[in-house]
Amino acid sequence: MAEITIKTSLNKMNFDADLIACAERIGFEFLSFSAHDAIKLKDLPFHHRNPFDRLLIAQSLTQKLTFMTNDPLIHRYGCNLI
């Protein structure tokens, strides 16, 4: 959600709908980024430089979540992937 909001504010994309309402309507669960997730960032190798992806990778590892992506670099982190 943060990436969509930032890209919209930079006029890199146009998203006029209420992001929270859209996410809730399709059943997304909102997750908080914890201090444990943040600490995990220092241990991650730099296979990937995108900061948003690195935050999600750290969160998926610390919270034992499944990461859904088609990015071929993400598998290098040992995440559970779809």
The number of strands is 2
Mean of all residue-level pLDDT scores: 92
Q: What are the segments in which pLDDT stays under 50 over at least 5 consecutive residues?
A: none
Q: Work out the count of structural domains.
A: 2
Structural class: mainly alpha
Numbering strands along the chain, what is their spatial order in the largest sheet? 1-2
Strand percentage, roughly?
Answer: under 5%
How far apart the termini lie comes to 20 Å
Continuous helix count: 4
Evaluate the radius of gyration. Answer: 14 Å
* Topology as a string of helices (H) and strands (E): HHHHEE
Structure summary:
41% of the residues lie in helices and 5% in strands. The protein is built from 4 helices and 2 strands, in the order ααααββ.
